[in-house]
Amino acid sequence: MSLLIIQPVLALAPNDAEYVYQTYLKQLGAESAWDISTGSRDVIVAVIDTGVDISHQDLVENIFVNYGEIPNDGRDNDNNGFIDDQYGWDAILGRGSGLANFTADDIHKLGPNHGTIVAGIIGAVGNNALGTTGVAWQTRLLPVRALTKNGDGSTKIIAQAIEYAIKMKADIINLSFVGAQTDSDLQSSLQHALEAGILVVTASGNDSVNLDNEPHFPICSSLQNGAGALLGVSAVDEFYARAPFASYGSNCVDLSALGVNLRSTRVKYVNQATGDIYLTIGGLDGTSVAAPLVAGVAALVKSALPQAKGKKISEILINTAKNIDDFNTTLAPGSMGKLLRLDAALAEAKRLENIIKQTQNFFVYKKISAPVAFSGYNIAGQLTAMVDLNGLKDLAGSETDFIRDDLAQAQIFNTGRLAVSQSGSLAFSFYPYGQNYKKPFKIILLKSGGNTVVGVMPASGGGDDMQIWSVDGRKLGQFRIFSDKIRSGYSLSKIDWNNDGMDEILVSRSDRKSDIRLYDQRGHLLKKWDNPFGGGLTLAALSDQEQPVIMAAENNSYRAQVAILNPDKNFVVQFFGTLNTRGAKTEINLVSWQDRQFKNFSRVAVVYKNSREAGVKFYSPEGILRGFFSANRADKFIGTASQGGQLE
């Protein structure tokens, strides 16, 4: 078994107390970039290192939490294949979270602090009047311990750590270490990461060697093309010259970042004699602190351009970087890559996002005529996308959902099979009720601690048990919604009630009067609200408000009214969107989404159809009409919001 030995790297303006010492962030162009984005909790950055101090006051808000796992009970509660991984994973022990491992004797050594230092450079909470600020003020840091406190780590363990990060849907992986050897385990895991669309950021090492002559790994790994990318990072000083310790080489190094005299979080230390608390450490040098600067910038690019996969993020970072060959004339051209520029990278991400906004899909529907296809429209009623799910001709199409840029949950007509598609390609299919079950069912995609899960429920007459499945067909749980044994139809929606990255489930009956209920993914009833109308409902929700908003419409009625409910009260706050039904019973579907064209303002679409007309009306949450268009009454509406266009 080969060993990778860590190279101790360590030899809008925020109000954070020590930001004044982080001059390298200003030199990157951070303050103008933060005007565009300070990050997003939708972006997950895996820190594969010596572990992270997850209770650190300047990191705790950004630490990834797997809410499907019960800590320290010795069980794999969420059935993801990992035991007790509530806060990342310890790949060395094979169980537990990715905590930093140290004793009182070595708390001041750089090795045990290494992962916490790296995590802080990427994503220490910004603008909280405490300690330092990370490049990304908001992100989710996924700690994965794969190196001992001395910096030792086998390629097998590191490969397992990378596979865990892939499993947990990391967008970016930071590897602030190098070694002289590689093997098939490491190569295979890196290839898997690229195929999953992940950006892997690697340090060049502190041995001051020409990597073109003496390749080190993982930075010099040779991999096949994928949606992701491997990005090699070296270090320069404040004058953009190669730091004396930094390894270089045009075949392996893509970017350089400032890597001298940085400041970051450290494992919390309390001086028992004086009571002083130490949360930060300064004077940090090395390629291992340069690499997380790149990972942090990548996280900001991803937050500003959510559609971008690792390959596109890498292209943006490289294409907007600055040539520094003139500052390194003793080296062959390109040996240091190009200089990372945060402001330019974010400006380019914003430019691309503005282009994508023009073709953003705000809702979809299926035409009854074959072949089956999902059609996407913008707010002006212009067709912007059409997805044919591999030509499946027996697709029912009445149930579909989106998370991020993935179209998913297509029910297969008369077979009871559930198909999950990503970016227009069939990813998985399975039978949630067994192959003998032929009745239709309701489906909904849910965010679940970095993963995506599928909620499944029988349609009218099929029962009232909600099942939770992984997208690759593993049943995670089951619970009962109503207990009155009335076989009914249901309306489902989702809402991130606590703004914690975990969607809760809204449900009501769609064909008769019932209350509106809110459940967590374990089946706990959290809240109930009275029905504002006299019949069955269709539901939608907005999670991105200061206070979550729930909407309800009376389905198949002559009034066709939509109500906004304040979740903390049991009465309708405001009616809006009353449609002229012309005396015809009207089928209603509600859609909610974030309209990034207007700085994440929420929008509500009322999709309606009766015997006389069909169409879509777009509203703000306050009930202001923002747009509308008519449609064909023969169309079968799905009315599900998409999160935007695709990037190649």
Automatic annotation (TrEMBL):
Protein's name according to its UniProt entry: Peptidase S8 and S53, subtilisin, kexin, sedolisin
InterPro entries: Peptidase_S8/S53_dom, Peptidase_S8/S53_dom_sf, Peptidase_S8_Asp-AS, Peptidase_S8_His-AS, Peptidase_S8_Ser-AS, Peptidase_S8_subtilisin-like, Peptidase_S8_subtilisin-rel, PfSUB1-like_cat_dom
Keywords: Hydrolase, Protease, Serine protease
Domain Peptidase S8/S53 residue range list: 41-324
Alphabetical list of PANTHER family matching this protein: CEREVISIN-RELATED, PEPTIDASE S8
One GO-annotated biological process of the protein: proteolysis
Record-level Gene Ontology MF annotations: serine-type endopeptidase activity
Keyword field contains Hydrolase: yes
List of catalytic residues: 49, 114, 288
Family: Belongs to the peptidase S8 family.
Pfam families: Peptidase_S8
Superkingdom, taxonomy of origin: Bacteria
UniProt cross-references to PROSITE patterns, sorted A to Z: SUBTILASE, SUBTILASE_ASP, SUBTILASE_HIS, SUBTILASE_SER
